[in-house]
Write the structure tokens for this entry.
Amino acid sequence: MSTKMLAVKDLVPGMVIGEPVLSASGKVLLGKDVVIAPRTISLLLLWNVCHVFVNDEAEISSAESQQEQPAAGQSILSNEFSNFFKEYDGLITTAVQSFDFIRNTNNIPVQELKDTSFGIYSTVLSTGPAIMDYLLVSDYNLADKVTRHSVMVAFISSIIGRKLKFSDDQIKVLILAGLLHDIGKLVIAKDSEHEPKAHVIHGGKLLQHVSSLPQEVLLGVLQHHELMDGSGFPLGSKGDKIHLFARIIAVADIFHQHAYDGEHSNPFPVLEHMAKTLFDKLDQGVCQPFIRHVRDCLTNSPVLLSDGRTGQVIFFNQNRLDQPIVKTHTGTILDLSTTKNISIKRLLSQEYLANAN
Ligand SMILES: [Fe+2]
Ligand SMILES: [Fe+2]
């Protein structure tokens, strides 16, 4: 099939990459035959790729389907992506300042934290459903681990709050609770750092006398490690004795802890873990809508397989969320639930992003 060179700004979702896209150092960023998704265009812009080769035939059919789409769809998407990253960077910066203040003074800068929470709330609102896609590739090393984790848990909690149809006011409080859930880690003594309960107790002590914080925030902090079957800590509370905000933060916390390892993202095993192993431990009324949402976001995502091949997730097996059906870059369809010894190693976009930075 013949290919044609196009500027990245002129790409539309549905076109097919005709020749591998290489980085300046010669690394393959996107393989031949990758179907361009909205996220692909955003990543190409992020990597400063100006032109790519696409299949001519795909271009024609995409041009036809483009006529059915809003005329400015693509440029809105690109703007949205870069706006998201600008907002995300800004939020991380203000969170770092607030968290450093807490570390140094043991005091809580309530207004600054509320401002950061409001920033997260408005970013979620303005970015819309695409935000999960962006979050899956945005956990790069802009700040220390506690700050990044706290901001991400706040973001993920707000996505769950929206899925559960919370009011805007409830979501703002939930975000603040997510942002502060591990606040005790900032003031913990080095010798009790590895005692899991210590950060919860220190967090409670830090916040209990801050009168301008809603009670739900304190409960979110104190109960985010409690589990539905009573096997959590610090009290071993069960079921609805655990505040709903804490049950939401527990889901967001576990997802973020397991899906990201600092440099790369592999959210597939944690989805399976949450759905099966943690079935009795997490609130399934919270967990299931979230899993469905992440699963939808991950469909079409580029992945690296354990045998070194790259591909795209095309369908999830209901019985094994970590073993979806993948189409490799050469067009082979692999059902990972029946393919021995091949698994997903990581989301590729995370690797690309790490390389690009
Ligand atoms: Fe925690
Ligand atoms: Fe946490």
About this structure: DSSP finds 13 helices and nine strands in the chain. Residues 149, 153, 181-182, 253 surround fe (ii) ion (ligand 2) (CB under 6 Å). Residues 79-297 form a domain with the Hypothetical protein af1432 fold (CATH 1.10.3210.10). The first strand starts at residue 3 and ends at 7.
